[in-house]
Automatic annotation (TrEMBL):
The gene is atpB. It comes from Dysosmobacter acutus. Residues 9-74 form the ATPase F1/V1/A1 complex alpha/beta subunit N-terminal domain. Residues 355-454 form the ATP synthase A/B type C-terminal domain. Residues 131-350 form the ATPase F1/V1/A1 complex alpha/beta subunit nucleotide-binding domain. Pfam families: ATP-synt_ab, ATP-synt_ab_N, ATP-synt_VA_C. This is V-type ATP synthase beta chain.
Length: 471
């Protein structure tokens, strides 16, 4: 139902109040026509009896209480959808900014999505290949999963995001199309240009749909960006049958916009000033990943968020960890030593990888290699702590071998060139080669049959000799 009113009751920052409104709905879109004929958009964010609070997308500068004509559209914000979405670039509110003209849509959809019946979900199993050894081997990304990346300010998460977009592909070529939906939230102009230029140079723009929200855009647009991106992803996946990987960076910027918006409405703040509904709000985004019965496509999510002060207990990563199925944590100390990608192995995990690896999915020895690498690297950390107390020269021979394994593991397995894409076989073979640096008796997470087939100390020494290192 369309409602037309003239005049505003109150203006407070990006919010305006309207009295005497009946029949309006929460999240309903609003058009404000100013006295000079210009049009601004907004949406209903709060209803108190017949008083309606509207958030104006373009801000309230030059807005007066009189001379403003307000029209209620009767529907929430909708995104135009079309098979032409891949290859297009939109702003945070879903408007084309690539100079290719408007999108010829075949339908529109509510950006808030529709509730997904849990019974209709299919358990994720097949994996998505990223070409990055530390992810593919140790924290495998499963199709339909939500696997966030926890980074820190100033670290190389943007570079890692670009590499994943360039290299990601379906592990099983079943004829289904694969696509990327990339949402940049609250980024600077140079970062947005970097993303666009990198995708164009890599030749992946034809399968990528971009939503770019800049740091100088209104905060309401920052709140809309991930919802627009996920609406596009759901359309491509569940109606066009594509397998879609959604990458969103930076979710922390989204949460800060939500905090600012909540404060402007006068809501009681929760932990660190974030609204008390932050958990449910994030869940409304993350839970839009998955596989649905009867649909040939899927939606997989990699949200990237920066932890303020590298604090993993901060509300944003803390709540994200409760909702998602694992995390990939980037380590500042590794980043400072030149390791790229600086993946911290021990605090990272993928809770769904156990059902998406092994024979028929990756390789029969995948789980064994992963478990043994985790166990060996954990022992390396204990050995390094001991060496810092008593000195490396006083360690046992086995512990000294662990130290050398740890160094080689970081230099050759975790470290990878930005333009290097390793196959799963190359990754697992490299893992075996590095494990062969250790005595066979230390490899207690691998059965004897696999150990006999893959344990080759001479290959491990050859790897180090090629790089001028000593065992």
């Amino acid at each position: 139902m369309s409602i037309d009113l003239t005049g505003l009751s109150e203006i407070n920052g990006p919010l305006v109040a309207l009295d005497g409104v009946t029949g309006a709905g929460f999240d309903e879109m609003v058009r404000l026509r100013l006295s000079d004929g210009s049009i601004r958009s907004g949406r209903v964010v709060q209803i108190e009896g017949e008083r309606c609070i509207i958030q104006v997308f373009e801000g309230t500068n030059d807005l007066g209480l009189s001379g403003v004509h307000v029209s209620m559209t009767g529907h929430p914000m909708e995104l135009a959808l079309s098979p032409e979405l891949p290859g297009r670039i939109f702003d945070g509110a879903g408007r084309p900014i690539d100079g290719l003209g408007p999108l010829f849509s075949e339908k529109k959809a509510d950006i808030n999505g529709l509730p997904l019946n849990p019974v209709a979900r299919v358990y994720p199993q097949d994996y998505i290949h990223t070409g990055i050894s530390s992810i593919d081997c140790l924290m495998t990304l499963i199709r339909g999963q939500k696997l966030p990346i926890f980074s820190g300010p100033g670290m190389q998460h943007n570079k890692l995001a670009v590499q994943i977009v360039r290299q990601a592909r379906l592990a099983k070529a079943d004829g289904t199309r694969f696509g990327i939906v990339f949402a940049a939230i609250g980024v600077k102009n140079d970062v947005a240009d970097y993303f666009r230029r990198s995708f164009e140079e890599a030749g992946v723009m034809d399968r990528t749909t971009m939503f770019l929200n800049l740091s100088n855009d209104p905060i309401i647009e920052r709140i809309l960006t991930p919802r627009c991106a996920l609406t596009a992803a759901e359309y491509l996946a569940f109606e066009l049958g594509m397998h879609i990987l959604v990458i969103m960076t930076d979710v922390t910027a989204y949460c800060e916009a939500l905090r600012e918006f909540s404060s402007s409405k006068g809501e009681i703040p929760g932990r660190k000033g974030y609204p008390g509904y932050l958990y449910s709000d994030l869940a409304s985004l993350y839970e839009r990943a998955g596989i649905v019965k009867g649909a040939s496509g899927s939606v997989t999510q990699i949200p990237i968020l920066t932890m303020p002060n590298d604090d993993i207990t901060h509300p944003v990563p803390d709540l994200t960890g409760y909702i998602t199925e694992g995390q990939i944590v980037l380590d500042r100390s590794l980043d400072a030593t030149g390791v790229y990608p600086p993946v911290a192995v021990l605090p990272s995990l993928s809770r769904l990888m156990k059902d998406g690896i092994g024979e028929g999915y990756t390789r029969a020895d995948h789980a064994s290699v992963s478990n043994q690498l985790f166990a060996a690297y954990a022992h390396v950390q204990d050995t390094r702590s001991l060496a810092s107390v008593i000195g490396a020269e006083d360690l046992s021979l086995v512990d000294q071998q662990y130290l050398k394994f740890g160094t080689a593991f970081e230099r050759h397995f975790i470290t990878q060139r930005f333009d290097e894409s390793r196959t799963m076989d190359e990754t697992l073979d490299l893992g075996w080669t590095l494990l062969s640096l250790l005595p066979k008796s230390e490899l207690d997470r691998v059965d004897n049959e696999m150990l006999e087939a893959h344990y080759h100390p001479d290959e491990a020494q050859s790897l180090l000799d090629q790089r001028g290192e000593e065992l």
